[in-house]
Amino acid sequence: MAAAAAGNGTPREEEGPSGEAAAPPPQAPTSVPGARLSRLPLARVKALVKADPDVTLAGQEAIFILARAAELFVETIAKDAYCCAQQGKRKTLQRRDLDNAIEAVDEFAFLEERARMLEREGQREGERERIPGIQYCQLNAGFIMS
Fold this sequence. Notes:
mainly alpha; about 40% helix; 4 helices
């Protein structure tokens, strides 16, 4: 039973059945001003969801959950790819590390065909003339200014 300490008004920790102090109860996460719940921009996730012709409406909660799932997916595949890079005694992720992670982890099997398709496109891209300062990004089929 929590009771105030003798006269100073501060609560004491609850005691367990054996007389020792019990662990404090879990607390809800505190909100920090300016902190974001999602690292991905929700407006971009919503635009991607709405790009699907089968989707007519998407609630904010659904968008948030999809954004969070995407974050966890990227985190997981990045960690697995980093392990592949470490096996090669490197710290920098390379395309082959992602390919190795996709082949090694059963949960990524759905990406194998897409990875092969991107590899074929990349071989054709190597034949294209390169523009200095611009790098072609296959993941989102866009250009990145470098």
